[in-house]
Amino acid sequence: MENKLSADEMKAALEQMGMLAKEASRKLAVATTDEKNGWLSAMADAIDSQAEQLMAANALDMEAGTAAGLSSAMLDRLKLDPKRIRGISDGLRHVATLPDPVGTTLEKFTRPNGLEIEKVSVPIGVIAIIYESRPNVTVDATGLCLKAGNAVILRGGSEAIHSNLALAKCIAEAGEKKGMPHGTIQMIPWTGHDAVSLMLKMNQYIDLVIPRGGERLIRAVVEQATMPVIKHYKGVCHIFVDERCDFDRACDIIENAKCQRPGVCNALETLLIHEKVLEQFAPMIAKRLEDVEFHADESFRKYVPAALPATEEDWYCEYLALKLAVRVVKGLDEAIDHINKYGSGHSDSILTEIPEHAETFLNKVDSSTVYANASTRFTDGGEFGFGAEIGISTDKLHARGPMGLKELTSYKYKVRGSGQIRS
What we know:
By secondary structure, the protein is of the alpha/beta class. The chain is 42% helix and 19% strand. Helix 2 runs antiparallel to helix 5 (82-97) and helix 3 packs antiparallel against helix 7. The longest helix has 22 residues, at 7-28.
């Protein structure tokens, strides 16, 4: 919705949201598992009972999006129907079944002076989530943060503003009726960039920002934020076909990684091929991926002349489409060097029948998720058995790879003494 507030008025309103969230977070930190699960269940029931109202709000966004010329893919991501709404409520119920990550003793030891030191998982506090397009993120992200004991401040995209506000109001009211602290769930109601810029300076209230969207959004958040940001700019994922591997299986894996869902961050973007298998493998993979546009080096183009010449930019490119960069390398070391130089630290895989090469690759490739003989498409919280995820991080602090409930917690030390003083 359009901003009708002055800069000072908006800043005051956002600071009030921050104070409410901070106060709520302190109460959430000591909430029991049963309390949190009860709030999640109440939210799920409310979404089901208010499905018609939620779809009516979504219809306003769909109408505006159509008028604005949004692509069919964007409109599909935006749309809510009975099946998707049920999926959203079922997602909350599933989160309620997951183990509570808060209060777990991570380590415990006694010092020679008798001090008992216990390292315990605790909520992060207040998490701001900035996202685009999909209104289900309003509920999915909130459910995960709440189960981990965190308050949330949400800022969705302008294209989904009516849907997001309706969903946030629905779940916040349902939770508060069951005793959830006021301020646990808050949605920024303004679509202008000014609100985001002001929020990103509120490090006295917000402990962490998680941007979910394209590289442009994430870089803008990182440039402005005064609090930690968990991010992944893009997914430039690689597969290396080694000098000894099962070619049929390799084609299956590469096809899955590139073609199953080319528009996602764990899809294959660059294929590296050992020069010893190029003559046999290049025609095989070209035939298998006949709908894919290849951007390749000269060695590969000798066997697949229809491929376009690759440029330096292709090695860095996240196509998110049926396009694939292909490079021929002399061996394992060159493949690893290429990935560590051009990759984005997301997901990379080696296809090999040489166990020593697999282990070297797993050890030396500096990415959040590294595979041997499997598709990169498995980099996902659900596929890893986390139940759900808030996103995929290519950072190294404090979370890396698929982020589940545990990654939405921090820790603190509880130290119990009997009068010890330091000499």
